[in-house]
Structures are given as C-alpha cells and as structure tokens.
C-alpha cells in the first residue's frame, strides 16, 4: 500500500506481460496497473486479454503468438510506437505437455521449448535496446519444481531450469548496460494450467494432493502472491537486486 501523497511504485512505467490472459499473468498485469504502470498484456487469445483489462484502463491487450516468426520484433515496434519506451518485460507465458520418457513426441518437446525458452530469449533480445535506454528490468517466471525432480514433466521443468540459468547469465551480461534481470519460481499456484494440460478431474485432484503434501505451508498459493513478488523485484526500489531467483512456493524447495 502507498500513502495518499506518495508516488505509486511503478508510476509512469511501461510494462509488458506475456501470458497475461489468465492466472499469474493476469494478476501481474493488474498488480502493475494498480501501482501506476501502463501495461501491455500479451497472449494468444483476445477474449482472456480483454477480461484481464476489464475495469483496468491502464492495461492494453495486445494479441500475439510470441512463438511466431517476427512477433517479438513486432511487439517491440508496437510498444515503442504506442509508448515511446519500455521499462519492464515479464516473461510469464509457459505451457506444459506432460509425458514420461518413452512417450514424448517431437511436437511435445518443440512446443515447450518454443514457448518456455526460445520465445523469452527472442523477446528479451527485441526489447533490449529499449530496456537499455530506460534502465529496465527483465523478470522471468520459472517454477520451483525446476530445482527438483519432476517425473512426467521433465521437459517442462528443464525449460524452466534453463530460464533460471539465462536469468543469472543475463544479469551479469547486462549489468554494465544498466538492465537488471531477475526471476520468480512459483510453486503450487491456483491457476488454470491443469485445464490447459487437458488433465481429467481425477488427475487434477491427484496432482493437487501431491502438491499439498510437498508444500510445508499446507496450501495452494494465489496468483496475486506471485504477482506481488514480481512487482517488488521489478520496482525501482530493488535497483541493487539482479540475478536472483525468488521461490514463491510455500517452502516446497527447501523442504
């Protein structure tokens, strides 16, 4: 909370959030907007983006498939034309294609690599000139399970672990250029990712039971709790923080 006479933490900043149609992305877009930022909400489907922006005049939907050729550059051109600057990139979009070794198809592997790893690299690269001008921040959204074994979703976990390595590498590489790079690693969060995976109700219930059993705080997290961590790491007050991967997981990684 900010006082009535204080400046909102993100006042006047331009923030781009991928995967902003639901879950963590939606909560993050709204959290930045509530703190005074102008938010460009990116996702494949227009309707969820419009729902994210409903009632929030600081959020502008921008439908885009970040895995399509040329889209990162188009997004950068659109942001520049509309706002003249770019302060924060939140690489949140991600997909899961469950499959144990022996059942994986090239398509399942390629889809996860394209969305979870390649697209964040290319979008960060397209945004870099603008982020360097503004002294901006890249926030990558990983997963706490990427630091543990995850049987059945090993490719997803591997892409997120790679994103954490990119976070540390870019933090060192870009520090001299005035750009910070940080990450959050959510644990079990109440999002529609189960529906997006096509899990049956029985399978979703089994996954939740496993997650609760491995979360010391004994509950599922809320998207708003992850959004809080993202906005805090991206805030100007965190100007000496870079290269960190912050778990938001109820203690799952340290248990």
Keywords:
single chain, 255 residues, alpha/beta, seven-stranded parallel β-sheet, 8 helices, 14% strand
Structure in a nutshell:
The protein has 255 residues and is α/β, with parallel strands linked by helices. It is built from eight helices and seven strands.
Can you offer a commentary on this structure?
With 255 residues, the protein is of the alpha/beta class. It is 44% helix and 14% strand. It has a 7-stranded parallel sheet, sandwiched between helices. Strand 1, helix 1 and strand 2 form a beta-alpha-beta unit. The longest helix has 29 residues. The chain is globular and about 45 Å long. 43% of the residues are buried.
Helix content: 40-55%
Largest sheet, strands/sense/barrel: 7 strands, parallel
Q: Tell me how many strands there are.
A: 7
Taking the alpha carbons of the first and last residues, their distance comes to: 31 Å
Q: List unreliable stretches of 5+ residues.
A: none
How many DSSP H or I helices? 8
Query: Which class best fits the helix and strand makeup?
Result: alpha/beta
Order of helices and strands: EHEHEHEHEHEHHHE
- Rg estimate, integer Å: 17 Å
User: Quaternary arrangement of the chains shown?
Assistant: single chain
Instruction: Tell me the β content.
Output: 5-15%
C-alpha geometry: globular
Strand order of the largest sheet: 3-2-1-4-5-6-7
On the 0 to 100 scale, the average pLDDT is 92
